[in-house]
């Protein structure tokens, strides 16, 4: 049984409902990560759900082709991977180097994520086979490095969304082994 959501809206939820900004805004200073990438990196499952409900693209790519699932896998955020998969977001795209989120989880030693992603990949393959999964392909120039390649900088969007999710320039730290 799913826990009931409280009727109280969070400030983020209230801000999302205004529709005054692009939930897919790319952060040009951080490899074109979107708010969804940051939420996945931090493992914020409820924020992931909210962003997806308000139109965030689950397969948005960074400059090296990382999806939000790659960010979650790098940091061992299984709850983020579960939130993406439960929302029907493919979690098996390859980046510019051919690495899937599962491979990233393997590199960083996140075995629980690896096991989960193996299961998710099997489910995705079955859904593709049955025609149940329609994926948008994104035309990406991975070598693009000038400012014209990035979407316009909306400072209000950046300051509200990114500051709510990321901590200044802090890279994720893998969870300590027990």
UniProtKB/TrEMBL annotation:
Keywords associated with the record: ANK repeat, Repeat
Pfam families in the record: Ank, Ank_2
ANK repeats: 31-63
Alphabetized Gene3D superfamilies for the sequence: Ankyrin repeat-containing domain
Protein name: Uncharacterized protein
């Amino acid at each position: 049984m799913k826990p009931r959501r409280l009727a109280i809206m969070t400030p983020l939820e209230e801000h999302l409902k205004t529709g005054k900004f692009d939930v897919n805004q790319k952060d040009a200073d951080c490899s074109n990560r979107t708010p969804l990438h940051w939420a996945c990196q931090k493992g914020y499952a409820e924020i992931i759900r909210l962003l997806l409900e308000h139109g965030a693209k689950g397969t948005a790519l960074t400059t090296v082709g990382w999806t939000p699932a790659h960010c979650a896998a790098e940091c061992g955020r299984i709850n983020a991977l579960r939130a993406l998969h439960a929302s029907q977001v493919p979690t098996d795209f390859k980046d510019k180097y051919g690495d899937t989120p599962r491979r990233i989880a393997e590199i960083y030693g996140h075995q629980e994520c690896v096991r989960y992603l193996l299961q998710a990949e099997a489910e995705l393959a079955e859904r593709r086979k049955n025609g149940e999964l329609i994926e948008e392909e994104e035309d990406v120039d991975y070598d693009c490095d000038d400012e014209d390649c990035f979407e316009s900088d909306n400072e209000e969007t950046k300051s509200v969304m990114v500051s709510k999710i990321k901590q200044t320039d802090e890279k994720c730290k893998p969870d300590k082994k027990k």
